[in-house]
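Q: What structure does this chain adopt?
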Amino acid sequence: MGAEGRQDQLPGLAAELVRAKVDVIVTSGMSAVLAAKNATNTIPIIFAGAADPIAWGLIASLARPGGNVTGLSELPGRELEGKRLEVLKDAVPRVSRVAVILDSTGRVDPSPLHLAARALGLTLIVSDETATPDEFRSAFGALRRERAHAVYAPQTPINVHHQNLIVELAMKYRLPSMYGSSEFVEAGGLLSYGASFTDLFRRAAVYVDKILKGTKPADLPVEQPMKFEFVVNLKTAKQIGVTIEPNVLVRADKVIR
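A:
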């Protein structure tokens, strides 16, 4: 279930699926999962990527989810966001001021980012709310005027929808960039670190198969990511005049040259 970045459409889409009496709903991202959960407590819901599903009240526990929701979670935000900032700092040590493109609908709690930044000696510059192309352009201009050295775009639905524009703007302002998925790097971003969404959806299919064969979601433990990808785009590094530290480059799972 997706809404092409338009979060206001998610409740309606979820209600439409419920009216269609589908056998199972598969979705990703906290906003979409919550919309599905609010629409039905009977149709099985499988999420492929949702941070802190216990904290959001989606499940009772990882081992015994209870209810009609289960699937594959991401690591808690404090761990994953901190790791991304750490990798960015390791890759480009001169970075000390990081701009964060943080929209209000992505359900990303900024406090772990601030905690991680302080531990790494980084200053965070958080953008105004961004949802439209003009707002993204305005935000990047403002962040650059605030002397940002790099940019981090969390894996929110709106950021994913505007992936190409974000990459384009980071390139325009010659800002080293970190993202939550390899798709951004393949589109021209510099770095990404996160769970493999291809792997998450492949494993979600196993859940769907079990449910269609009669297993209840309440009895299917929630899994956490087994595979993380660190991807580097050296073509982009050259274009923006950045040299990736060799000891970081050897840790990459994939290097785009």
